[in-house]
């Protein structure tokens, strides 16, 4: 009897039917899991398409504002002062660039590059915030009020805050200088509308980088679904 | 080393623009303009004198350059070279069709959405599941 139990092949059709039911159940569960994965991928794809269209709508608004400001600047400064004939054709490097992270080992259909904007030569934080800088004074600390002897930790905290604010000032003055250099193509004194047009197009660039990442996600999800 | 991507990981790259004068001017104000030693720029201004051949040549050049990661092209310009834009399928540089002043964005003509639109057809989805 024990041998018969151990070797179900000797027992005939009843254990075979049970095995078939078990196998069918496993196949059905595996099929449900596969369908579940497929549904998840389709949902991810639909989300990325929706995100892409929303970003495109935002981009259209930013560009429209930029064109309007540019037209106002041209109206106040004169058409000859806001024209492509003034573009500098001397050798120059772009101030605003992109950082691209792409896996070289993947096939082009599987590739999912990540774009990050580097405005005015300064690296922006990525969306996933993997490289988020540690904030000064992030550790909770007790404050000592009215104490004659200031603890050493407090001095370090003040130094860190001072360093951070001087970094912010440096950053902002660097950005101002870079912006002024870009505007100087159109002369020394420019209309405020040209400055606001510049800001609008900078916003458009940020949206464009998000669009590029959304496009990568969409195409990657699409490849997964096709497989 | 074999199998390297055109743009190595984490290198800086440019944004190319093929669009009308105002759009190019705006993006140059935002700092994307680049002119190399051979006086080659990363932008092309399209006006009524620009030929389709010039647009095609600019598109082919920008998509083959290793230092360009995104190519922005006005959708109405992309429509002039639609066969080239739709035939492009590399991940980098990414081609993004943008609206222009006189031609708003139309998702029906976007090459990326055209590539994936068959998934939205109920017939094709139903036949895949059968």
UniProtKB/TrEMBL annotation, chain A:
Superkingdom field: Eukaryota
Region annotated Disordered, chain positions: 1-35, 126-159
Pfam families: Vma22_CCDC115 (PF21730)
GO MF annotations in UniProt: unfolded protein binding
BP GO terms, sorted: vacuolar proton-transporting V-type ATPase complex assembly
Name of the protein: Vacuolar ATPase assembly protein VMA22
Automatic annotation (TrEMBL), chain B:
Keywords, comma-separated and alphabetical: Hydrogen ion transport, Ion transport, Transport
GO cellular component annotations of the record: proton-transporting V-type ATPase, V1 domain
GO molecular function: proton-transporting ATPase activity, rotational mechanism
Origin: domain of life: Eukaryota
Subunit-structure text: V-ATPase is a heteromultimeric enzyme made up of two complexes: the ATP-hydrolytic V1 complex and the proton translocation V0 complex.
Family, as annotated: Belongs to the V-ATPase F subunit family.
Purpose: Subunit of the V1 complex of vacuolar(H+)-ATPase (V-ATPase), a multisubunit enzyme composed of a peripheral complex (V1) that hydrolyzes ATP and a membrane integral complex (V0) that translocates protons. V-ATPase is responsible for acidifying and maintaining the pH of intracellular compartments.
Protein name: V-type proton ATPase subunit F
Gene source species: Eragrostis curvula
């Amino acid at each position: 009897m024990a041998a018969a139990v151990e070797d179900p092949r000797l027992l005939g059709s009843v254990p075979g039917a049970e095995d078939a039911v078990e196998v069918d159940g496993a196949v059905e569960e595996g099929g449900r899991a596969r369908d579940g994965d497929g549904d998840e991928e389709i949902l991810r794809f639909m989300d990325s398409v929706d995100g892409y269209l929303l970003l495109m709508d935002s981009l259209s608004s930013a560009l429209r504002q930029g064109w309007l400001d540019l037209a106002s600047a041209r109206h106040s400064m004169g058409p000859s002062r806001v024209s492509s004939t003034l573009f500098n054709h001397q050798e120059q490097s772009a101030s605003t660039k992109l950082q691209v992270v792409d896996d070289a080992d993947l096939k082009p259909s599987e590739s999912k590059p990540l774009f990050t904007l580097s405005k005015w030569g300064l690296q922006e934080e990525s969306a996933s915030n993997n490289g988020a800088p540690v904030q000064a004074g992030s550790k909770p600390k007790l404050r000592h009020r009215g104490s004659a002897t200031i603890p050493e930790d407090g001095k370090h905290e003040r130094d860190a805050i001072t360093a951070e604010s001087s970094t912010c000032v440096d950053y902002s003055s660097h950005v101002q200088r870079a912006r002024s250099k870009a505007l100087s193509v159109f002369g020394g004194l420019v209309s405020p509308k040209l400055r606001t047009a510049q800001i609008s197009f900078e916003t458009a660039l940020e949206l464009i980088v998000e669009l590029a990442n959304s496009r990568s996600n969409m195409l990657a999800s699409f490849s997964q679904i096709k497989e | 080393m074999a199998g390297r991507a055109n743009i190595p990981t984490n290198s800086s790259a440019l944004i190319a623009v093929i669009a009308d004068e105002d759009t190019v001017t705006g993006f140059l104000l935002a700092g994307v303009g680049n002119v190399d030693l051979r006086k080659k720029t990363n932008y092309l201004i399209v006006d009524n004198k620009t030929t389709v051949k010039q647009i095609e040549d600019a598109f082919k050049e920008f998509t083959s350059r290793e230092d360009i990661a995104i190519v922005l092209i006005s959708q109405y310009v992309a429509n002039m070279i639609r066969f080239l834009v739709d035939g492009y399928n590399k991940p980098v540089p990414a081609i993004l069709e943008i609206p222009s002043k006189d031609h708003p964005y139309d998702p029906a003509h976007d090459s990326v959405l055209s590539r994936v639109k068959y998934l939205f057809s109920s017939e094709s989805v139903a036949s895949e599941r059968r």
